[in-house]
Write a structure and sequence with these properties.
With about 90 residues, the protein is an alpha+beta fold. It has a single domain, classed as Histidine-containing Protein, Chain: A (2-Layer Sandwich). It is built from two helices and three strands. A three-stranded mixed beta sheet has the order 1-2-3, covered by helices on one side. Helix 1 packs across helix 2. The radius of gyration is 15 Å and the shape is elongated.
Length: about 90
Amino acid sequence: MCTALACRDPLERSLREWATEICQRHRSHLRELWFKAVQRGVVISGVARSYYGKQLALCELQRRCGLPVIANQIEVEAPEPGANFPTNRIGG
């Protein structure tokens, strides 16, 4: 599910639409995503399943928007217990 701020002007509406599109396109990496227009640019917020998802959201917004990204406040979820992650061990 993607959420966004109420639309007060065309920029905010565009940010809301972009957040929804990006979140849907990368739903395996992003759980929630929203953008907020501030005086000097845009702040990104939400929840990602990995740091890769956090980076995807940043790159997608930069590609679509000419405003500077002031902060990327996307939280990265902790991996689920028992998740299969590679280890540094050799041979096992």
